[in-house]
Amino acid sequence: MSRAGLLLAVAVLLAACAGPPLYQPVSSPHSFGYAERKFGDSGLYEVSYRAPARTTYAYYATDRESDRRLRLAYDLALLRAAELALSRANRPAFFIRRRDNDVEVDIRRGHGASYGGFGRYPRYTAIPYSRYDDPPYAVISAQVTLLVEFTAARTRGSFDAAETASRLRRQYGAELPP
What we know:
Layout lengths: L2 H15 L15 E7 L4 E7 L3 E3 L5 H26 L5 E16 L2 E5 L13 E5 L3 E15 L7 E2 H11 L7
Helix pairs in contact: 2-3
């Protein structure tokens, strides 16, 4: 195989391994992404982001990973609020009126199968199929919901929409679509 063909094959394999983009509209109730909803003519929006679920195999890491998932969900909900302020509402700033955090930690026990009796000593296995417990693992998911009010001027306690969007795009640059 030529060098160019090998590089092309590697590129195709890497592209196939890439998952969906981190910052996208939510497509189903159990997937990740952002969603927004406007409350009538009040100028309030509800902006939410569900972070991708993460599996960890250590009990001690669940708190740390929960914090990471929650931070990611908050940052990307904040990015969506900044984008809405600039594009739909045509406002340079916004306030967060309410923030709801939802973290789920689902601890599960794994099960595996052990087959005995292979090789030279099959008689030492009393049960040909026995189950043993794999280490427990946790599936962690987080969602942040913000109630946002857009404003015409930046005041104390408000977020500058352009600065917030720019900062978060720099922070998550490689993981966000252009």
